[in-house]
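ok new one. same drill as before - structure tokens go in, u give me an amino acid for every spot. 412 of them this time. try not to just spam alanines like last time pls lmao
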């Protein structure tokens, strides 16, 4: 595959959280401190950890960035270098993407995730992830029934449906919504009606182009940069089962976080536990779904990758050469979720009409981003769209009601 040039456009300034009234300001001053308090409620931490988390929730609102403490962490030196340009700055003054990724890294530092002891390798978000999976069980049954009906056959409408499921599974992002309010069983509707409903909420929809590309050629390798655990991960695994079972793809590589972050982001352990959960279910279609996935893992058709880059604060155009060369081998890279989309664009203040492909000139493979809008960064819109959305009122960039399936470098 021909390597494209690296970033060719001059990137604008990164988003920060300093502007009162912005979604990023709300995130740093309200959402993230509340996550600290929720962690205290949901976990039986020692008193020392509870005190540190409480003080940290106040630091994020008001104070300067503090250093990491546990030198034994494998990424300590990297984070030490990431921090150097921002020493002396407040949490609100540094780039927002850096602030968020560092916030979650600090939580692991506080609880002793990398330190030998009872909390070593402990996922502080595990109860939320598990609860999200269990509360979505009826939706998971529905998904497994649909997969069973497809039964390994290539169906363009089935692929379309699963891509939309994979997209809107993002509505279960646990860092933004409480799982108690996520799942309500709506009246059944036809597949076509469901697809039309999905399309109405998409600002950019390259799905049919993507499905045509998948259908017209054999794909030795497809990569998916995974976002959330829970129901969204199950939807992603449904897409995996469909693409491998229909022989559209020979191998699929899932790119995961190497430690817990952003509350619901999926790790290798989350994938393995989810597959075990599916395979152990009494619902026959669901159990078959889980066993398919186990077989793909055992037969080297499904790979789980957790490069440390995915928990760094870096833009995707700053990826290490080893990761670039790995993605260069892919026939298609599917990028899931809002935070991964922000990383694609460097979380910069791009003009909303900037073309997606112009920014992504640095990327080594055909790419498709599936993302619900939950932050202010988005590109590829027309001025007419922007004006109409602004007239509608509401926080359309951040409330999760709109989505995009946006592709670049897809061969005709």
């Amino acid at each position: 595959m021909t390597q494209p040039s690296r970033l060719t456009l001059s990137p604008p300034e990164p988003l920060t959280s300093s502007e009162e009234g912005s979604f990023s300001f709300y995130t740093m001053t309200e959402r993230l401190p509340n996550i600290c308090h929720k962690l205290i409620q949901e976990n039986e931490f020692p008193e020392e950890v509870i005190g540190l988390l409480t003080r940290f929730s106040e630091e994020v609102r008001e104070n300067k960035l503090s250093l990491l403490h546990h030198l034994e962490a494998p990424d300590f030196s990297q984070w030490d270098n990431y921090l150097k340009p921002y020493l002396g700055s407040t949490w609100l003054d540094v780039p927002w993407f850096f602030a968020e990724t560092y916030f979650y890294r600090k939580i692991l530092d506080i609880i002793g995730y990398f330190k030998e002891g009872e909390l070593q390798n402990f996922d502080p978000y595990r109860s939320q992830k598990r609860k999200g999976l269990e509360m979505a069980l009826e939706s998971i049954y529905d998904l497994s029934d649909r997969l069973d009906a497809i039964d390994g056959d290539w169906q363009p409408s089935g692929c379309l449906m699963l891509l939309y499921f994979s997209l809107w599974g993002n509505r279960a992002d646990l860092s933004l919504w409480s799982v108690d309010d996520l799942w309500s069983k709506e009246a059944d509707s036809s597949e076509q009606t469901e697809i039309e409903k999905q399309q109405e909420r998409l600002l950019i929809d390259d799905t049919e182009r993507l499905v045509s590309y998948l259908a017209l050629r054999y794909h030795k390798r497809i990569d998916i940069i995974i976002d959330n655990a829970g129901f969204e991960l199950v939807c992603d695994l449904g897409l995996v089962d469909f693409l491998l079972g229909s022989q559209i793809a020979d191998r699929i590589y899932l790119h995961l976080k190497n430690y817990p972050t952003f509350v619901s982001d999926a790790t290798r352990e989350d994938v393995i536990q989810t597959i075990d959960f599916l395979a152990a279910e009494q619902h026959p279609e669901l159990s078959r779904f889980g066993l398919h996935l186990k077989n793909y893992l055992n037969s080297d058709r499904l790979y789980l990758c957790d490069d440390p880059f995915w928990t760094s604060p870096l833009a995707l155009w700053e990826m290490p050469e080893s990761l670039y060369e790995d993605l260069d081998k892919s026939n298609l890279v599917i990028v899931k979720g809002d935070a991964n989309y922000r990383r694609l664009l460097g979380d910069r203040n791009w003009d909303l009409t900037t073309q997606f492909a112009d920014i992504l000139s640095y990327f080594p493979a055909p790419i498709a981003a599936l993302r619900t809008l939950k932050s202010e960064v988005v590109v590829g819109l027309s001025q007419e769209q922007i004006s109409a959305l602004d007239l509608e009122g509401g926080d359309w960039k951040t409330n999760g009601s709109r989505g995009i399936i946006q592709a670049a470098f897809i061969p005709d």
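The beta strands are 202-205, 219-225, 249-255, 302-305, 332-336, 367-372, 403-408. and btw The domain at 23-124 is CATH 1.20.930.60 (Transcription Elongation Factor S-II; Chain A).
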